[in-house]
Every structure is written in structure tokens, then in C-alpha cells.
Protein: Assimilatory nitrate reductase catalytic subunit
Organism: Noviherbaspirillum suwonense
Amino acid sequence: MNAPAPAPPASGTAPAPISETKTTCCYCGVGCGVIVQSDGTQVTGVRGDPDHPANFGRLCTKGSTLHLTASPALQRQARALHPELRTARDGERLPASWDETQDFLAKRIAETVAAHGPDSVAFYISGQLLTEDYYVFNKLAKGLIGTNNVDTNSRLCMSSAVAGYKQTLGADAPPACYEDIDHADLLFISGSNTAYAHPILYRRIEDARRANPAMRMIVADPRRTDTARDADLFLQILPGTDAALYNGMLHICLWEDLVDLEFIAAHTERFPELKRSVREYTPKHVAAICGIAEDDLFKAARWFGEAKAALSMYCQGLNQSSSGTAKNASLINLHLATGQIGKPGAGPFSLTGQPNAMGGREVGGMANLLSGHRDMANPEHRAEVARLWGVDDVPSTPGKTAIPMFEAVRKGEIKILWIACTNPAQSMPDQNLVHEALKNAELVIVQEAYRGTATVAYADVLLPATTWSEKEGTVTNSERRITRFKPALPAPGEARHDWRIVVDLARRLEAVMGLDKTLFPYETPEQIWNEHRESTRGRDLDITGLSYRLLEEQGPQQWPYPEGALAGKKRLYEDGVFPTASGRAAFVVAPYKPVAEPVDARYPFRMTTGRLRDQWHGMSRTGTVAQLFSHASEPAVVLAQNDMERRFLKDGDLVHVTSRRGSQLLPALAGDDMRSGQAFVAMHWGEEYVSGRGTDGGGSHGVNALTLSAVDPHSFQPELKHAAVKILKAELPWRLLVVGWADASDVLALQAAMRPYMKRFAYASCTLFGRDRAGVLFRAADDYPAEPALVKEIEARFGIEGAQVLRYDDTRRGNARHIRIVDGKLEAMSLAGDTAAESWLREYLEGEQPVAALGRLLLSPSSTAPQGFKARGRIVCNCFNVAETEIMETLGLQAAGSPDEALCSLQDKLKCGTNCGSCVPELKKMVRSMAVPA
């Protein structure tokens, strides 16, 4: 999908020439190649790179709208453009020069280390940094300051996958590649809604299944996601029971002689211990634990054991758990026992969540790692890195991982916290802990491209950083493929590259510390990468045969790629030799353990979290694009239909979702993907988009106010996927809806201006809407009507004031309808009290339909829609703006045919699903719901 053409140049000036730059998408770990079109001052369009082996030109809805996140109007409103500094704890953060800011930081860090030791400083960084950025952060902390307190949001994402690979295979290296999808005859997707989380990879799965109709697909997930609906076998397991499922499948494979005894004898160790451990996982016992049919368990085990090539793909459903390492290891056990590894179409394939979480692991950017996949606990590894860096030693004291790090900040043990390219005030579990820590820290440094995140509000120092269209370096995707990341535009304002910010600070800190040499001589990212490359020599991820020049001339390459090699390795362990002391893979006893917080009579619902199709993480980037809200426009908790009925709930009713840590009001929606007793909330909704007064009057912090901080004992990854909650209907009879278009130069500023108002209501949310134009939608609810002055103040922000506004007021009932019309069309409106007319008035506003024919209906207290009015409903296809009602109407008019024929006919008529393909799984669901007879 390309950007619309840029505005024509002023009369008499030639249009700026359009240049094209190859880079990668900055969202998920698929690592799609992107061609960025720019005129030197702004990005004018993006398209998929047809030569990139990760995507071959395809982009999903998020990737295909990247140019919209870089428009000049949005950049001016959303970006951090100059350093800001608060020198007094209670003072205001004010603009400052880079010299003043960096000198202040060097002095404070040196003083704090002198007074409290190096471990009084900590760094919390991100899988969205480039590898070069990661490397210098790691060296600054462990090499110069002398602390291992450097961890990353990858701890919330991939650390259980890392631990599982290392325990069993000996190294943190996904052994499979994307090409294996084409060679598999069984695909086992577990704990991943791939259709949403890795859409372009899912397009590849769809292609492979069309090319090989005999391919089978098993999906294990607590929800019947769009991925699960496509499965040949769906195992709707209870949350957290994955390890029991894999152990049960292995039990059946052993019982029915479906294991590869030759492979086990030649290439593995510790099999007898594993065999004894899975003896107790009988089919009946496992089916009861997982909540699935015993026959389905047998079918899954037999399909896996009998497959010529079985490829498993998994993500956060396994990782984000207090037993995440056991889940990963038990699945890998299943592969090792059946010989499903080291051959085309087979292997345990962990799908990386973030664009460069893999690169961060390569440089050791976590509290327990060192560069080149070295372990912090290994003295030889520490000595090797110390020699490379030119320091006396690397500290041996274990660093704080993410959750303990914030606990230490809250307790005052860590004085200075440096946060880069991540938003822990939204993304971390147990938000009360995180917010208390940020309040208690002596100094919070936030290095960020977007100034509107919840974490920036706590910053004493704001360091403006570049983002995807401006950065240069490398990233590594899920299949170990390294891609050059090149800039299309110069840095805006005073923003600087992340690596440059770190290097400049490090040199000043060296001067303050009295060092006579620098550990940071870099002037280009290539110099950093070359040092990183040398750190991998002789390691499992050896990339000494690569260079920036080779990556530019020959394209993205997979590691390992040692010096002298002609190509990287597609898949690992084809020779049956593993990077362990014995050269053998190790079976790991990985017993099933119940979730850290089981449900009970007080908290009877199992709440899970996950992704929306068109949003990314905390939405600091996707949240600037109005059309990406059209598929899921507002926060919600999704429940099974029978749970809605038992609680006398209908769609849109507000409910209290309460855990042992906090509570968040949310609208309830019925979902046919849900099992009774379960609740689902998308992970993206932080306090930037949904809030309220909170139970203590201090405001609520979004969905992660509910999640818990229990961690896996091996990976230290927190349990973000499951929490026990109770759900009670909220009695908030008074409602307010204010919605209106905004100028492109003001829409994000308007949305940000609503945040203080959100905390003045029991419940409030604020999102964007629109496509060619953008607007803001503000919704609130309370148990009594708001003060008229407050409503008037909010309305004024939307331009709903003055003589041109049409008004209906019923002060006795607390109802009001105020409408602003411009050129015969709705421009903004405010509904207070009775908001039932919202359904059709919003359609008129968003559709920019003329309202002259409506007459008194505009202000009538009745909620009745105009005769003949038909709501479009939710947008399913974002590329072509195709709504649910249009799809269902077209399907209803079609002649009988097979589901495939119905889908093709639908795509021919409406074009939906013919561009990025992200909506295809949902289109299939809609086709099936119409039950078109063959």
C-alpha cells in the first residue's frame, strides 16, 4: 500500500525529487524489508521490498502505513525534538542544550557511583533499538560504569525462549528458518496468534498450505483466534497448561513407538530421566488438565509423531509465563524425541516479538548475558569480553532483571534509572509497582523518540532520539537474518541517534572519572558493528565473514556466517552436532506447574492478554495513525456470550475488571473466540488511551494494572499472559461522548490534551478515528452528571462553542446534544447523559454525509436513526476501507459455491484482502458464518 501523493509544490517551484531507501519495518520480528520513498524532507510513501527474503514485497496493515507515522504534522506533535532537563526534583522540565544535558548527566552519574557504588545505576532498554545502539549501552553499563544492571523489554518478550534453547540445544539460536514453512507437512502453532502478531509470516503459511493441501496445521491456544479458525485441529487448552500438553503428546509418542530412537541415541543425552518424568502424563490426566478432548490429544500426538517434517512456531503464549522456560523446553523435548530438528521443514521455531530482540541478545544486552552469546556467570567469558573492551574486568555481580530492577528502584537501592526506547509505565506488569518506582527514583532519564508516552511524564531528563526512518545500523529477525538499516531522512529537530547519545555521554563520563583513554572511539555505527562482529569470532553466532558492504551488495544474511564462508546457514544442527560440552542436545525434565495465580471464588475469571491486528505494543507509533483504530476502535474486555448473559451484560456495558493488584473499567464485548470463564484484554491499552479516577483517586494505569509480576525462575520473564480477575457490572448511568474532526496539525495535541480530563471521570477513553481526515473520540462515564463547566471546557477543545453550535439541553435529566456543523456536515458533537443516538450520528460525522435532510432529528431527544439509515459498522479491510456490513451483504447476494469460491468472489467485488492480506483470516471466518453450500 503506497502513500497518497504529496501536496503539489507552490507555483513556480519544481517538485522535490523522490528518492528511495531500503530499510526494514520497525514492528514485529518477521523483519520485513521496506522501500521508503522520500523527498528529502518527509516520507512520501512505503512499499514492501520485493527482494527481501523475509517478505518478498509484502507488508501488513501496520507496515504499509509506516509513512503516515512520519508525516511532518504528526512529527511536530508527537516527537521529542530537543533535550529537556529538570534540575530540581519538584521543578519543571525545561528545554536545554545537548552540552548542558550531557554534562549534567555525566556529573550526576559519577557522583552517584562514587557515593553508592556502580549498582546504584540501571539501564532498561529495548528490542526496538538497533544492534549498534544495544552494543554501546551494554558496554557503557558493564565496561565503563561497572554494573550488570542493564536489562531490556525483551525480558518481557523472549527470555523464556532464550532459556529454553540454551537448556536443551546449548545456545540461543532458533534452528529453523522461514523457508521451512514450505517444506513442512505438519505445522504446530502454539501460544501464537500468528495471523495478528506476525501477519506476513502467516501469508507465507497460507501460500504453503495452498501449494501443499496435504499439510496439516494444529493450533493450541486458549482462544479461538483467527489463526485457530484456520487449523485442521484446534486444541483450546486452558491458559498455562502448555507444558502438560507437550508432555502428554510425548507420553503418547513413547507409548505408540513414534519416537526416533536412532536420533536419540546418536545426538541426545538424559533421555531416561525425561522418559520417567513423562510417564505420569497419561492421556486422561492431561486432557483433564488442559480442558480438551482425549481424542484430540491422541490425534495431535500421532500427527506430530508420524510427520515427515514437523515445524512448531510459538511466541508469547509460551514465553510470558512463570513457567515459560519449562513450556519452551518441553516442546523442544518433543522435537528431539521425534527427530524433528536439523532437517528441512522441521524444528522448534521461536517467533521473535520485537524487530531486534535477537540483535539485543547477540550483543549481550541483558543482565545475565555478555556479547557473542556469552554468559555473565562464566569467568572465562567475562575475561574474553574484558580483553576485547580493554578494561580490567567485567563485574561478576548478577545484574537486576526487569522486575527486580523496578523493585530496587522503588526501594531506593537503584538511584538512577535510564530508560531507552520503551514505555514501562504502560508495558510492565503490576503497574502500581512501576509507577511507585518511577516516582521514587532520584533521577529518571528517558531516551525516546515520542514525547507522549506515559513514561516520559516521569522523566527528569528527556533525550530526543531518532526513529526508524532516520536511523542507521543493523537488525536481526526471527530466522537469524541480519539486515542493514539505512536512513531515509535526517534527524528532526535536535534528535540524535541512540548510539551517538550513549557515546557522547560515555566520553564525558570518562573525563569526569579522570580516564586518560576512551572505550568509545566510534564515529560511525559501522565501527561499533565491526567491534561487535569481532566479539562473535569462534562463537555459535560467528559473523566475522559479514560486513556492511557485503550486506549492502548481497542483501540480508543469516548467521552463523564465519570468515571465509560464502553464505550463512539456513537451518542449524543438520549434522546432529549441538553447541554443548558433549556435542549432544539435552533432554530437560520440564514438569507442568499451574499458573502463578489460579482462579478462585473471589477471582473466578482467567484473564489473558494479546495483540490487536493493527496496533503495536504501547501504540506510541501506531497510535498516531487514525485509520489503524478502525478495526478495534476502543478498549474492551472480551467475554464468552454465556458469561455476558449470566451477568446481564450487553455489548458496550462497562464492567470493573479487578485483580489482586488493581482495577480497570472497560466496556464488555461478547466474543465467539472465548471459552466460558475466560476474559481477554488487548495488551496495548495503557493509561494514554484508557483511564479514570481509579479506586484510590490517583487514576488507573490500563490493562497492566491487572497483570502480576511473578517471574519464571530460569528466565525471569513475568507472567503477563494470565491473571485471576473478577468482573462486575459498573453502575455508571451518566455518559459523555465528545467526538470531532481536528486539523492534521492539532489532532495528536488534542488527544494528549484530553488525558488530564480522563482522570476526572470514573471511566474515560480517548482514541483517534478517520482515514483521509483524523479526529478524536473522547468517551466518559460516571455515577452522576459532570459539572457543566467541565463539559463545556472539554467541548471547547473540540470547537463546540459559540453561536454556530446547535443545542438541545434537558437539564432535569442531565441530557444534552451539542452539534457543530460546517458546510452542511457534522464537524463535531457532544452527547451527554443519553448517548443512544451515537450509533447513527457518528456514522454521519465519520462518513461526512450532508445533514440538511435530517432536520429536527439532529436535536431530537429520540435516539431513532433516520429512515433508511444503514450503519457501516467496523472496518475489516483497512487497505480498501471495507466494512463488515458491506462484506456480509455481498456474501448474502452471492450464488452458492465453496468457501474458497465465495472468498475469491468477495475479493473480486470489494478488493478486500487483496493488498496486505491481514484481513484474509477474518474474511474466511465471515464466509464460513454465511455457510455457503457447496
About this structure: The two ends are 34 Å apart (CA to CA). Residues 199 and 366 are 28 Å apart (CA to CA). The chain has six domains: 19-78, 84-157+356-520, 159-350, 595-723, 731-871, 875-930.
